[in-house]
Design brief:
Layout: E1 5-13, E2 19-21, E3 28-42, E4 45-58, E5 64-67, H1 69-76, E6 88-92, E7 99-101, E8 108-110
Antiparallel strand pairs: 1-3, 2-3, 3-4, 4-5, 5-6, 7-8
The structure holds zinc ion (ZN) (2 copies).
Length: 123
């Protein structure tokens, strides 16, 4: 009798749908919530899972945030929980920079603005 034991990383999409304001690019975006965990494989069958971490991926710019663990658990267990910016910690920035340029005067602006503070142009 012998045992085949291994450890690998699993990932599961939690099918959570919500629209959250992205802290990276400032737009409101749909998110994808997934959980990443380590799992012990016994004869190639996952048995124990531990070290769960929850991540949110923004559809807008591809930024990835780690979600507060308690919130992640609640959502995984089917409870309604709203994800707020306080629950998120940026782990990987998106492909869009947080800085944009005004079409009218060409100055560097933060994406959070909806009007250029220098010339009043709508962004
Ligand atoms: Zn974004
Ligand atoms: Zn301007």
């Amino acid at each position: 009798m012998f045992f085949v034991i291994g450890i690998n990383q699993g990932q599961k999409d939690l099918n959570y749908s919500a629209v959250i304001r992205c802290g990276s690019c400032g737009s409101y975006s749909r998110v994808q919530l997934f959980v990443v965990y380590s799992q012990l494989l016994l004869f190639f069958i996952p048995t124990i899972r531990w070290g769960k971490r929850y991540y949110v991926k923004m559809a807008c710019c591809g930024s990835v945030y780690e979600l507060a663990r308690e919130k992640g658990k609640q959502i995984e267990n089917g409870m309604t929980a709203d994800i707020t910016p306080d629950d998120l910690v940026l782990v990987q920035g998106g492909r869009q920079a947080s800085v944009i340029y005004c079409n009218n005067c060409g100055r560097e602006l933060d994406r959070a603005y909806s009007f250029c503070p220098y010339c009043g142009e709508k962004i």
